[in-house]
Amino acid sequence: MLSRNEIKYIQSLCHKKQRQLEGLFIAEGPKIAEELLNSDFTIKKIYALPEWIAKNAINDIEVETIDEIDLSRISQLQTPHQVVIIAAQKNDFSKPVLKNKLSIVLDGIQDPGNMGTIIRIADWFGIENIICSEDTVELYNPKVIQSTMGSFVRTKVYYSNLNEFLKTVDVPVFGAMMKGENMYELQKPKEGLLVIGNEGKGIRNEILQYITNPITIPKKGGAESLNAAVAMGIILSHLV
């Protein structure tokens, strides 16, 4: 049985301030556990039910067997699923390489589920770099991590002052906007940035000046707008 202090410590990692202080994050479930174990992330400790441990040969990582009660106490999921992992954050990325590839820029994405889905879609299309505004939701938010379904291990997520970052780029900057060139009439670029704006407000005014190629998804029906992750997926299906 886990001690009260250990449960309290694990629960504290659900808060951004504590995650940043410790340089750690929480991930849950067999799928994400498998992705982490096969990645270059450093795993600090695994808490798991006996049935998960029996199916997974773990070497050189501290593993603690727990029961369903302890799992429910440390899990952030409504339905806890076998395993909780504490891993070290990776914040040592060098400057992203933008030439000869398409990268994503996120301007003020706030919803953790959206963020996780964006990372998952980027992974599906082989996008390596995601550059985020400083007010975009944190990668290591537990809801973001869960929504990625493990895709975060294959994408590099950077946080930057977008004004300063976009001043320096020398590749085309595509902006997902309500008014722009029909995306289906656009030739596939060999390189560039695709900017996705905030869920409610879109791309902020100070970023619009850097958009060299405003593009839009042609509208057929009466919906006012598209979810940010959905829009990105549709655009990438044509650009990649």
From TrEMBL:
<dbReference type="Pfam" id="PF22435">
    <property type="entry name" value="MRM3-like_sub_bind"/>
</dbReference>
<dbReference type="GO" id="GO:0003723">
    <property type="term" value="F:RNA binding"/>
</dbReference>
<dbReference type="GO" id="GO:0006396">
    <property type="term" value="P:RNA processing"/>
</dbReference>
<dbReference type="InterPro" id="IPR001537">
    <property type="entry name" value="SpoU_MeTrfase"/>
</dbReference>
<protein>
    <submittedName>
        <fullName>23S rRNA (Guanosine-2'-O-)-methyltransferase RlmB</fullName>
        <ecNumber>2.1.1.185</ecNumber>
    </submittedName>
</protein>
<dbReference type="InterPro" id="IPR029064">
    <property type="entry name" value="Ribosomal_eL30-like_sf"/>
</dbReference>
<dbReference type="InterPro" id="IPR051259">
    <property type="entry name" value="rRNA_Methyltransferase"/>
</dbReference>
<dbReference type="GO" id="GO:0008173">
    <property type="term" value="F:RNA methyltransferase activity"/>
</dbReference>
<dbReference type="InterPro" id="IPR029028">
    <property type="entry name" value="Alpha/beta_knot_MTases"/>
</dbReference>
<dbReference type="InterPro" id="IPR013123">
    <property type="entry name" value="SpoU_subst-bd"/>
</dbReference>
<dbReference type="InterPro" id="IPR053888">
    <property type="entry name" value="MRM3-like_sub_bind"/>
</dbReference>
<dbReference type="GO" id="GO:0005737">
    <property type="term" value="C:cytoplasm"/>
</dbReference>
<dbReference type="Pfam" id="PF00588">
    <property type="entry name" value="SpoU_methylase"/>
</dbReference>
<dbReference type="GO" id="GO:0032259">
    <property type="term" value="P:methylation"/>
</dbReference>
<dbReference type="InterPro" id="IPR029026">
    <property type="entry name" value="tRNA_m1G_MTases_N"/>
</dbReference>
<comment type="similarity">
    <text>Belongs to the class IV-like SAM-binding methyltransferase superfamily. RNA methyltransferase TrmH family.</text>
</comment>
<keyword id="KW-0489">Methyltransferase</keyword>
<feature type="domain" description="RNA 2-O ribose methyltransferase substrate binding">
    <location>
        <begin position="26"/>
        <end position="93"/>
    </location>
</feature>
<keyword id="KW-0808">Transferase</keyword>
